[in-house]
Amino acid sequence: MYINNEWVSLADTIEIDNPATKETIASVPNGGKTEAKDAVDAAYAAFPEWAARTAADRSSILRKWFELIIRDQEEIATLMTKEQGKPFKEALGEVQYAASFIEWYAEEGKRIYGETIPASHPNKRLFAIKQPVGVIAAITPWNFPAAMITRKVGPALAAGCTAVVKPAKQTPLTALKLAELSDEAGFPKGVLNIVTGGAKDIGDAWLSDSRVRKLSFTGSTEVGKVLMKGAADTVKKLSLELGGHAPFIVCEDADLSKAVAAVVASKFRNAGQTCVCTNRVYVHEAIYEEFISQFKEAVGQLKVGNGLEENVTIGPLIDDSAVGKVKEHVADAIGKGGQIISGGSYSNELSGYYYQPTVIGKATDDMLCMQEETFGPVAPVATFKTIEEAINRANDTPFGLAAYAFTQNITQAIQISEKLEYGIIGLNDGMPSVPQAPFGGWKESGLGREGGHHGMEEYLEVKYVSLGL
Ligand code: ADP
Question: From the UniProt record, which GO molecular function terms apply (predicted)?
Fold first, then answer.
């Protein structure tokens, strides 16, 4: 673990497994309440000096961190593939995406502007200024071991906050490598701390600590609700990036080959384990047969295997329970009349947690995979008759993170984007995530935004100053 710029080890450890081989590759300290508190002590002590620095000063250290991550990108990506499973090329893409948040916020930190406000009295002057919230806690998932950390600590550190971070227990190695590079970049003691270990102990310690003024969490809706309740006692600011259930609508006039390429990328990257992955596909009935035929052909090109091997495009799932959920969703869909177009089974011939990329035709809305996030490589395809019907079915869910639609009619595109109850809309685009745009969900998919100037606001408090002359 990395606390107060020192490496901390414990006799009690957690083993980290490679999901492609099920072999143990490393172990990290099994930290708990004590280490969680040590990290807050360090971050709290570091805050006044870090917050008082100029934005340009903080920016130059962040910039250095960005450059070091790019310098070591291949090493980080290899480590990520080993602990998380995603193919090396995809891991390299994540490292670059992760680094881009640090680069972007290093610049954006220089633009934290306030306001002057017209007064109600001639002898008064009114201002609103923005200040860092203080110590922030970030709790991150295993599906993006680097980017979910930098998307939170990039803006936080640029704003002048200090941070305590708990990476997912499956993927702490990438997080610790980022910490090593932050040390080399020259962050002062205690500005960034990484605690590995028991989620509940560490989470509870941070929730109950009134010095932690903000919690940013990415993970399941279920855990997000627990943390939201826990944050109430100390009224912490909250950002929650929770589960999704993304619909992908293909209109009759869509450019089919672009739609197919986009749905393959959106559905199968990270073996379907991203919160913005397409979870259900709605295709206009007139083009269903043609869509299915092109989709089947494209999915046939995908290669499942260990992500360190060349040409592999789909790695293993993270663990046994992930495979279990996929199997449950596929069995349920078949039981309800779904037609296996491709895949549909556990790849037993391989030693890791593999599942074949699967397309299910004739999907119906009563299937589990049409109602909840599968978080695996399964694409159920249903048909629709009118666009209103497709939008209503897309919106009929408690989730509202990402939604996709393909059409060449500009009016229809705008209408669809306005009617979908989602925080992120990909119109003729299956990969909308970038550091400069606001990412986040409606409904039970979350609170707050990450990315862009919106993402910076999450780490700032507004202070109104009324000056009498
Ligand atoms: P996923 O399904 O993606 O693993 P989780 O919501 O279970 O998502 O986990 C996301 C992160 O939240 C992980 O770092 C995990 O350790 C952490 N976590 C899980 N349960 C709790 C809890 N009760 N308190 C704090 N953190 C938790």
Answer: succinate-semialdehyde dehydrogenase (NAD+) activity
